[in-house]
Amino acid sequence: MAVTYQIQMIQVDRKAWSADLRSAIENELRSVGVHLDVTVEFTGSNPDPRAPSVAVVLAGPAAKDSDKVKQAIVDAIRVGRVVIPVVEDLTNFHEVIPVPVAHANGFEWSGDRPERRLARVLLEELGIEDRNRRVFISHKREDGLGAAEQLHDQLAHHRFVPFIDRFAVPPGDDVQAHIADALESYAFLLLLETPEAHRSKWVFDEVDYALSHQMGLQIVRWPDDPKPIPGSGDLPRITLSAADLATDAHGYDVLTPTALDRVIHEVEKAHAHALVRRRRYLVRSVEDAARGAGATCIPLRHWSLDVMFPTRRSIVGVTPRTPAAEDLQRIDQTRTIIDPDARAMLVHTARYLRENTRTHLEWIIHDRDLHLIPDNAVGGAW
């Protein structure tokens, strides 16, 4: 059974945008492999209140003065639905956007394939793709620092939260422990395969961890066939040419604007695929274990399951990272809506929870019937 989501298309003179956006969303669902697990319906009127939904205002010249558009926006905001305004040029935002949604941050329909970028924004808002986009940048400082810092800045401009040890580890902290925590929390590794990278034990450990924990992994390979990190030889790569690189003021290699755009595009695509794949794997692992114990399972929104036995019931969520407060809140709220007496479980991929993380999560859980289960122990949960 597929989970149904709805997207409310609010427009009067943007039929072409609407058609392109529908097609992009359908293509994205197929691309990340969830087209059989979820159904996204498009509507011009109020969505079904039982379905997770988001509204998008495709604003053309006639939108600002359209009473129909204004009323649809007001109705959506009144029921708490997120409304995303879309314009051709953000510099003219207030000239074309109806007043009821003029307070919201807008999306600019411009550049290369804006419908694809907007599709990902909407799927993230619905919880189908991951809106908490984190990337761990693995590199050897001697020849990769310039490109790593450049990618850090550019990824941040594309709504990612990138990690570089130079920026993220406070002075005096245990670097190795901090990096291990970051790998658990980020779930996606971007490796800069520079000529010296294979000499770094830390880079090897980071890649080995990513591979052994089924993390998403994207490799950017420097020109002239640098030696690969052990264990990564058969993995796909973005291969740079000499023309894709320049030298910064400190003598480090950096990417040209064209190469940088290419890498960011590939990271966006790989990240979406990897996190959806990892969540789906976790959900199916839970479902297999529950069905093997005699339960029936109903898929719910936000990659969760309603697991029912003849005499008991569990609401089970998953997270591909170290569990966080918002994960616990989401599964607890889902349980409260469906059956307050059900057991709630959060299945996570962290192999080890540090003492401060564990005690923090236990403090949040307090006396709720809410349980943290590592994914390698889910078979014994019932």
TrEMBL record:
Pfam families: TIR_2 (PF13676). Residues 135-242 form the TIR domain. GO terms for biological process: signal transduction. This is TIR domain-containing protein. It comes from Mycolicibacterium brisbanense.
